[in-house]
Structures are given as C-alpha cells and as structure tokens.
Amino acid sequence: MGKGARERLSRLLNEHLNTVHETFQLWDQTPASSLDKVSWNDVIKLGEQVSKQATMVGMLWTGEAPETKVLEENMASYFNLLQGFLLHSHASTLLDCHESHSKDQKLSIPQLVGAVWDACSALKKTPTTNVTAIGRAMTQVAVSMKDVLREMKELKPASERADEASDEASIQAESQADDGDDSSEGDLGNDLSPEEMKIAKLAIGVMSEALVVMKELIRSITGLLKHESLDNSVNFLNSLERLLKLCQGIGVQMDELGACLYPPQELPTIKAASEKICSNLDEMKVELDNLDGSSEAFVQACSVLRKSMRQLESQLGYSDATDLVPALENLTVGNQ
User: Fold this and answer.
1) Which parts of the sequence belong to the Cyclin-D1-binding protein 1-like N-terminal domain (predicted)?
2) From 214's CA, which of 5, 10, 66, 233 has a CA 20 to 30 Å away?
3) Do 100 and 106 form a contact (C-beta atoms < 8 A)?
C-alpha cells in the first residue's frame, strides 16, 4: 500500500471518528419530544448488525493485506452502522482501532473483533427496564449471602477437628511433607471453642433467616409488578432503589458477620453487624409498607430473623460476661 493510499485511509478514518465524536456530544442534550421512541429490540438488532460487520472486517485480515477500495467500503459500512447504533443507545463504547498497517496490527484485529463481539453479546443481556435491573441486583445480593452461608456451615469445633485428624494422621503427614506450611491453611475455621461454636451456630441461623427475608422481599416486589399503575412509575422506582440499597447493606453486614466468626471471634463487630441488620430490616419493612406490598410471609420472615438476632445478641452478652471472670479473679484489692 502506497503512501498516498495510507494518507487517504487515515483521513477517511479521522472523518468517521469525528462523526462518531459529534454523535457522542448529542447525548448531553435532552432528546426532542417530537422524536419517536425506539424500542430496545431495535437497539439489539443494530448491535447484531455491528457484530456482523465487525466479523467481515476481521475476515479481511485473515489473508493478504486488503485493497484500499475494499478497506474504504468496509470502513464506511462499519461506522455507519456504529453511528446508527450510538444514536439508539447509550450503552456502547467506541474503540479507537486506528494504527499503521503492520504485522502487529494484523495480530490485533482479531482481538478488536472479539471485543466488539463481547460488547454486542453483553448488550443482549442488558436489562430492558430499571425494574428488571433492580430485581437482578437484589437476586445477586441473595446469591452472595447464600455463598457466605454455605462457607459458614463448614465451621467445625476443635474436638471434631481432633477426631478427624486422628483418623487421617498418616495422610496429613504425607501432605505436610509435600506442601510444607500450605497445609495449615485448611485448618482455618476448624478449631472453634465450645463458646465460639455456639455463637457460630446462632450466626448461621441469622444468615439463614436473612436469606428467607430476601426471598420473600423479592416475591413481594414481584407481586407488586402485576399492578400496571406502579410499574415504572417514578415513586415506585425510587422505592425499589431504596429497598435495593437496604438489601445491599444487609449483604455487607452478612459478609462482615461471616468474617468475624473465625477464631478469634470479634464479638463487638458481630454485635454491631447484628444491630445494623436490624436497623436496615426496620427501614425495609417501612418502605415496603408504603408500597402496600408487605406480604404475610415477609412479615413472618422478618419476625423470625429478629428473634434469631436477639438470641445471637444474648449469647454475645453471655460470652462477654464469662470473659470477665478471669480478669476479675486476677484483681488485687489493696488495703486502704
């Protein structure tokens, strides 16, 4: 390819990029009310066309360097489709693919085509409404809580760990010889004292009941969606967003609670996490009541969770009291 052809391609590419840049600037402006609303299905179809055109561009670079005219035509087709896509959706990112022709460029083209494929594939998975997006986020919180719960159920008392160790002593000796210090990592959470195990079991109960609350909350919201007057209304969406933040807050405290169960257990942090969960639960109940969506099952789940948290906090207080006994015994009362 001669110098003149490269300069022409570079100039055309810059023109296309400038056009795309101008298109991006339109996003800062409020769409005119006279414009017709574009359905999400149309956006997805345009995304598929962009993907197909990217495939065609990628095929040009599988053999010898393509002719200048072919490059110009494919460049124009791709950017025209891309501009149309950008005009219909804000969920796209422009990749600058402008480089000088070289062997390195030939290797990078498939990667860029793959990036377009990934972007178009992700577009199809994008929630079509705000309500759907919030619902997915709440479900993700529940999934994360379930993972923490499963991990916490693997905690074992020291006595049980000792019995297992005696049965597998020879196998552990061989693994320790091969792995060195790495074998000690598997013992994490397997040496809880009887008091620590009581707290762990109560905390696991709290996590289980919190997961039930999350499920009932999602069911309640699903029931509300059947009312067309609420679906996608501003007040309804605002309430859902507040409920999502409360759910995420409970999820964070569940992570904190799970981390504190490993010995040595951090009792003040466990108590603080329990109090924050209770506070979020109260706000969640109020928010759902405002939407007239608080079901009997949700109320019952909240009641059971509060009971579990009271039991946990009671055990925490008992543990604090027992920890004070050795300290009190060591006190020396002087004669005055």
Assistant:
1) 42-93, 94-157
2) 233
3) no
